[in-house]
Amino acid sequence: MKSLGILLSGRGSNFVAIADSIDAGRIKNAGIAVVISNLADAPGGAAARQRGLNTLVIPSQGKAREEHDHEVVAVLQQHKVDLICLAGYMRLLSPWFVQQFPRQILNIHPSLLPAFPGLEAQEQAFAYGVKVSGCTVHFVDDELDHGPIVVQKAAPVLDDDDEHSLAARILEREHAAYTEAINIVLEGRFKIVGRRLVRESPL
Ligand code: GRF
Description:
By secondary structure, the protein is of the alpha/beta class. It is built from six helices and nine strands. The two termini are 23 Å apart. The structure holds 5-O-phosphono-beta-D-ribofuranosylamine (GRF). 5-O-phosphono-beta-D-ribofuranosylamine (GRF) binds at residues 8, 10-14, 44, 87-88, 108-110, 174.
């Protein structure tokens, strides 16, 4: 049984999608050991509490990044998590945090990286005029929205879209992509070659 730790700051729809996948058996042999929010009023935290999951608020406001990261890492280690899923966690992790969990931290980003890293990726893609966008689940490294890619899913940009309809289409892909990526990583049948995640062929 693998233990997941979820970090979030907001709405929490990716967290809910992961929890639903575990409940439905789409992610097997895994459970959510702890959900941590850095904001007390994050709807995702409320959703986690409602599901009866072990949910903690570790406020980040007014704390130096490493100080906050130390508190979060202590809780994750206490729960012996195998994999950390950033699910709308609006904090950069310090290099120290990343070093504590090598290749054990995933993030989801609402664009086809390396296009449109950073904030408001859907708006950036829409304004740029791309015809295809999507989402990326990747390992976290020291750079923003940067580590090796695990799963990407494309979404078309339609003529009558606005930023919101595009973001909603991408979000649907996000929910499916995170489940796929977690399964790939928990199975562990891959290697990282340079930046490339290469899956081992089945026996
Ligand atoms: C998602 O768009 C995700 O890709 C980005 O932050 C948003 C979080 O949404 N990293 P939610 O809180 O999971 O609903």
